[in-house]
Amino acid sequence: MIVPMHKYTFLVYHSAYKSFLKDIRKIGVVHISTKNNEPTPEMQELFRHLTEVDKEAKKLEMLDPEETKTKPELATGEEVFNRLKVIEKELEHTHNQILQFEKDKKQLKPWGDFDWKKVKLLENKGVYIRFMTCAIRKYDPSWEDKYYLRVIGDLDGYRYFVKIEKAEGGVPENGFDEISGADELILPDRSLSEVNAEIDKQKSETDALNHELHQIAFFSKPLLQDYHNEIQEQLAEQNALLQTTEEVDGKVKLLEGWVPETKKAELDAFLEQNQILFTAEKPDETDKVPILLKNNRFARLYEVIGQLYELPNHKELDLVPFFAPFYMMFFGFSLGDAGYGLVIMAAAQWMKKKMPNLKSVMSLAQWLGLATVIFGILTGTFFGIDLINSDIPWLESVKSYMISTDELFNLAIIFGAIQIIFGMVLKVVNITRVHGFWYSLSTIGWLILLVGSGAVYGLKSGEVVSPQVAGIIQNVVFAVAGVLILVLNHPKRNVFINVGAGLWDVYSMATSLLGDILSYIRLFALGVSSAILGLVFNSMAMSMKPDNVIFGPIVMIIILIVGHGITIFMSSLGAFVHPIRLTFVEFYKNAGFTGGGKAYKPFAEPASKTNE
């Protein structure tokens, strides 16, 4: 359900305004109305900085915490953030340095470890050593007769050699003679051992920086979170000031906000105690009211699914409690294997202990797993094994309660029709809440037509009434539904416009209703495909296992684990997505869902600070 909201207007003397904001933030129940959507430059800077802090926090979460005796000397979250940015830059620098030194190492490797000082000493005495290379197949041994050459070695298809030149007065103006087919290399001005030492030094610095990061991940996460909260606090305060208007030449500050009915008494007591002038009223038709949902423990788990689409507006029903049982049932229908359901329930229970922050999501997974177990039992499927056709004596007494493939197909259609009709009932309630009962007569007409026709067909098929009586009842259903759909579909229009609009409504419903119901066949298709995949992997495990007492069972178990793991993942994904589509397209449409609501976000202190 949607918690009713009250619209508050506060009038506060300017000198007491900051104190007032501090107090209502501490109470934490007022959702401040947005009048100005253009953030100030200061807010834009805070948003940018908050994004950077959030990125650093996420990077820290990905690191394995490392406890050591030495605690980082970081006293505040801001210091943690600044240090993380410095480490990030230093790591990037050392990484680039290592890449450069590795490149130098690759260039020096063919030449071995030599001393550049000796090369320079020879140059001072007029002896120049030139480092040359060419492809091995292009090396001409006659070069050795023409020039002073010394082959150093071969590597990766190239021959490396030095050409020794003598020049007493320095390098000639026109340069030394070139060797056609060979290239001269310009090597780094350091030895291979020096390059290796630099690489080791940079790697050592990288290890030290990474070690510090892991230390920060262990000791300083709370500080960074507090800093994140501080920035959010500043943003919230800046936004409150942005949404404040000034009255009486700036001497009075005016602020508007929304308060849930469940929190109203607490705020009223504070305002009266501090003699703050305010007004409280119910929302108007044009007000953009924030949405706060309040559901029971079961329906609350499904709010995360409803929020994937859109929140309802404050004038309509919250559909989460109404689609939750259907969604659970459809998931079980789509997966439909009792063994897979047990795996999901067990995995969710294990994840609850490992990740307490995902407790509600894991509880939802357990409910969905339970639905899968129920439908798996109903269809006689356990890890791809067809229990209905299996020769298991103790199951014979319950096989009569299991359903066949044809019955499963019919069940999918029946579930679809039930959910769509139920959605139309909710549409009547929604229209009545928003516009009034008389605007819902057309939808009531369609309900009478669909339910009435179905009831007549059932009575006739069960021979409860004679065909003649069934015909009379059906005509009455047509007449009543026709008047409501074609004539009374809008109370403020004339009859001729209503008839035209009604005919268009008939065309729209005739073309979409059948398609909506047939969409639920996907539940049947997903359930059957899941069972077939499991059966295929069972057959593969039996046929591909080696005829060996030891390795045979091992190979079979590996194939079963991998195969059923793939099936659970793929089928669970389909069982999660397709019921969402049925909910948001077929059910929401027939329930007349409008949406457009924005979540209730009170002006409050961060949760961690509040808990303190």
UniProtKB/TrEMBL annotation:
It comes from Mariniphaga anaerophila. The chain crosses the membrane at residues 322-346, 367-388, 408-429, 436-457, 469-488, 495-514, 520-537, 549-577. It is found in: Membrane. This is V/A-type H+-transporting ATPase subunit I. Keywords: Coiled coil, Ion transport, Membrane, Transmembrane, Transmembrane helix, Transport. Residues 192-248 form a coiled coil. GO terms for biological process: vacuolar acidification. InterPro entries: V-ATPase_116kDa_su. GO terms for molecular function: ATPase binding; proton-transporting ATPase activity, rotational mechanism. One of its GO terms (cellular component) is vacuolar proton-transporting V-type ATPase complex. It is a multi-pass membrane protein. Signal peptide: none annotated. Belongs to the V-ATPase 116 kDa subunit family.
